[in-house]
From TrEMBL:
Span of the signal peptide: 1-23
InterPro entries assigned to the protein according to its UniProt record, in alphabetical order: FApF (IPR025737)
UniProt keyword list: Signal
Protein name stated in the entry: Phenol degradation protein meta
Top-rank lineage group of the source organism: Bacteria
Keyword Signal found: yes
Protein source organism: Acinetobacter johnsonii
Pfam families assigned: Phenol_MetA_deg
Length: 314
């Protein structure tokens, strides 16, 4: 009887979804990693390092209708460290913009899953994730009488399949597929102390020629296209401290393809909101802390995300 219960749960899970890291079909994307004052680099041209530490905790793996998957447990928590190196040059391809480059490498340092079946339905692996690289165009701030009023940036980010990946794992640090994830980021100053920022991404995924075992004998899969947006607003309560709210929204627009055939019922979506704080020790050193609480997830996990980000200008 116990084996029948396990087999039934495994069949339901495999039919419903096949998990990749932090999601089911879509690769890892920027969900709330960036928030306040996102439209411009804080100290002008030069080299920057940014270190992110993120903790995620979920006990809900949702299906297409937003219901929990039929497993005894659906517990997932992990810690990830992301190191970002940025360079903004003094070269100006136009009169009011500068050319730059971003490079990010994530490391899934710890992951724990519990499906209530001795992890027969959920198998996970830690390790390095996919390398992300993107040239960007940073536009000069539009100035007002009391300081900057608006600043924005465009980046053409590419995700390279360099991360660790195993076909027999449900959750991998890497996605085993290229993806194109360009974005537009902007910050608007209502007054010198109060700002609002956004970062809007478009995601296009290429084929994974070695899909996980949950896809059976399929030769390849191609996750659907998606949009994801970060939003934030904060107020300077002190010369060095800003407090505010931030959030994110993800929506998959097109169906995942398996062996070139569209498969319905797999589109992902989720949104989150939470408080945040920014502490500026100096013009060259900043710490940003954010908490996010997810809602209305479909075909992905739903949980709580906590992050600390350190920004340093050399």
């Amino acid at each position: 009887m116990k084996n029948k219960i396990i087999l039934s749960a495994l069949t339901l899970f495999t039919t419903a979804n096949s998990s990749h890291v932090l999601a089911y079909d879509l690769p890892t994307v920027n969900l709330g990693m960036t928030s306040f004052l996102d439209g411009g680099l804080p100290a002008g041209p030069g080299w920057y390092s940014q270190t992110y530490f993120q903790h995620y905790d979920s006990d809900k793996l949702r299906d297409a209708s937003g219901q929990k998957l039929p497993l005894p447990k659906t517990d997932l928590n992990y810690q990830v460290i992301v190191e970002q190196l940025s360079y903004m040059s003094t070269y100006k391809p136009t009169a009011h913009s500068s050319l730059g480059l971003n490079l990010l490498i994530p490391y899934l340092s710890k992951i724990s899953v519990d499906d209530g079946l001795n992890n027969q339905a959920l198998k996970a692996k830690s390790g390095f994730g996919d390398l992300m690289i993107g040239p960007f165009l940073q536009f000069d701030p539009v100035m007002g009488e009391q300081g900057p009023k608006f600043v924005h940036r465009i980046e053409l980010q590419i995700n390279l399949p360099t991360g660790e990946y195993q076909q027999n794992r449900d959750i991998n640090p890497g996605n085993n597929a290229f993806s194109f994830n360009p974005y537009w980021a902007a910050t608007y100053w209502f007054n010198p102390k109060w700002t609002a920022s956004t970062r809007a991404h478009y995601l296009y995924n290429f084929k994974n020629d070695d899909p996980t075992y949950g896809f059976g004998a399929a030769d390849d899969i191609q996750a659907g296209q998606a949009v994801h947006i970060n939003l934030a607003s904060e107020y300077a309560v002190h010369d060095q401290i800003r407090l505010g709210l931030s959030g994110y929204y993800l929506k998959q627009l097109t169906d995942t393809k398996v062996d070139g055939v569209k498969v319905g019922g797999r589109k992902e979506s989720v949104w989150a909101v939470g408080p945040g704080l920014m502490y500026s020790h100096s013009p060259k050193n900043h710490v940003v802390a954010n908490a996010y609480f997810e809602h209305d997830a479909k075909n992905r996990t739903e949980g709580d995300r906590f992050q600390i980000r350190y920004i340093h200008h050399f």
